[in-house]
Amino acid sequence: MQLVKKIDELEEQSADGKKQLPKLEASLEKQRTKLEEEESKLDGIFESVKGKTEHLRLEMESKQKELIPLRSKTNEIQQKVDVAAAEFKLCKFSVKWGCCWLLLSFVF
Length: 108
Known about the structure:
By secondary structure, the chain is an all-alpha fold. It has one helix at about 1-105.
């Protein structure tokens, strides 16, 4: 009994879906057309701006090329700073413990 009821409900839903299908397909086609129009407008805007920004793009590329040696030098210096900081921590640790050992040797 429940199975028959469920089948009837599903058939009703299927019929409703089939009724709505043409309307939904038309809406989808309308949205696709609108998307194509908007993409065409966007392409036009890109083309109109392209000539105006070309010199800026070239200048930016030039400046980025100038930064390459500076970035390399910065990385090199940062590595040296990191090594020096690590060595300082080791020295600080060894001095701290060295003083403790020295004090302990006087006590015992």
